[in-house]
Design goal:
alpha/beta, 5-stranded mixed sheet, about 170 residues, 7 strands
Length: about 170
């Protein structure tokens, strides 16, 4: 009887250790998908209006990929600065802001977007995209050039309404 209990405990321990190692390897390979200087991982997400967005469909454009949440105060300020930039400069054929809702309720984000008059896309994260991009908190922003290459990652809020930021990014990312 004691031998059977010992054997069962040994098998369970071996399964736990093996599972833990496999999970670590899986996480490592996912994080390796996002590296500065390499192609940004593609995704397909729907926005709060039901429109599908894919990174591969945006090749030829500079993409600002911004992860945020409605419960994040810095994110709210940053979204207002994105909208202020768009209000002042209008839409652009070669430059697009994509915001991705992270661990949040899409209904809350929809209410905020309508209330604030956001005209930029608010994509609903499927959980996979934020994992692939290694999101640890918000806001986090990825700068992707016209060829789809990830050029920079910014952790924390950005004042996009600053008149010098976007022209500088256009020059660097074109």
């Amino acid at each position: 009887m004691k031998k059977n209990v010992f054997l069962i405990l040994f098998v369970l321990l071996a399964l736990i250790v093996t599972g833990s190692i496999l999970l670590k390897k899986g996480k490592t390979s996912i994080k390796e998908n996002v590296q500065i200087g390499l192609p940004a991982p593609d995704f397909e997400l729907k926005d709060i209006n039901g429109k599908k967005w894919s990174l591969k469909d945006l090749k030829g454009k500079i993409v600002i990929l911004n992860f945020w949440a409605s419960w994040c105060n810095d994110c709210k300020v940053e979204k207002k600065s994105i909208q202020a930039y768009l209000n002042k400069n209008g839409a652009s054929d070669d430059f697009v802001f994509l915001t991705v809702l992270y661990k949040d309720n899409p209904l809350t984000a929809t209410e905020i977007a309508k209330k604030e008059g956001f005209t930029f896309p608010v994509l609903i994260d499927d959980g996979v995209t934020s994992t692939i991009y290694g999101i640890k908190g918000v806001p986090e922003t990825f700068l992707i050039d016209k060829k789809g290459i990830l050029r920079h990652k910014i952790v924390g809020p950005v004042d996009w309404s600053n008149p010098h930021i976007v022209p500088h990014l256009r020059q660097v990312l074109s």
